[in-house]
Specification:
Keywords: DNA-binding, Phosphoprotein, Transcription, Transcription regulation, Two-component regulatory system. The chain is an alpha/beta fold and about 240 residues long. It has helices spanning about 10-25, 35-45, 60-70, 85-95, 105-135, 165-175, 180-190, 200-210; strands spanning about 5-10, 25-30, 50-55, 75-80, 100, 140, 145, 150-155, 155-160, 180, 220-225, 230. α6 (about 165-175) crosses α7.
Length: about 240
Amino acid sequence: MPRRVLVIEDDPDIGRLVTLQLAELDCECRLMTDGVSGLAEGEAGHYDLVILDLMLPRMDGLQICRRLRALPHYTPILMLTAKSSELDRVLGLELGADDYLTKPFSMLELAARVKAVFRRADLQQATAERAQQAQQPIEAGGLRIDLQRHEALLDGRRLDLTAKEFELLAYFARSPGRVHTRAQLLDQVWGYSHSGYEHTVNSHINRLRNKIERDPGNPDYIQTVWGVGYRFAER
């Protein structure tokens, strides 16, 4: 879908050129020519990017940047300015601008900066979504692993797991079907990979099986892959 961009720029020529360039990038643009109306639009609308001039009538860009950063949702801000001093750049970035472009600038440079802002925003969103998904409860048969509450239930009954047993179970359950060697489990769950400690993995898995398996001798969840390691059964 097209990206929505709010341009707050009082120079009509620059505003026209910026919106034309953004249209080439498949963006839908709204142009505001003074600070007060620009802030009102930025607070009321949902935009993927705000391109903000520093020197504006009625309210300057630094004030607008500060106000936009106080909102609960995050919108990337690319600041435009005729001022080139280091102090102005640092102040704009400290107030929350994502990037800074000094006039005069080429439209090719503007396009490159806009694309870079969009790439960073997409990466941040994808990272946040992965983190959120990683905290979702995992369910496998009658087993439920609640990562946020740090508890596991079997058929609705809370299991009495130690902290390391829970970490081991959660690590297995995040990648069902994948085979893990004892050395990999030591490295990922315990944080070290000394081969002499592989018996630690065996003892923890045996205790974990006694707590989660209906028949520990014939496990449904944590299965042995002979000569390799262990895996969590696919469901």
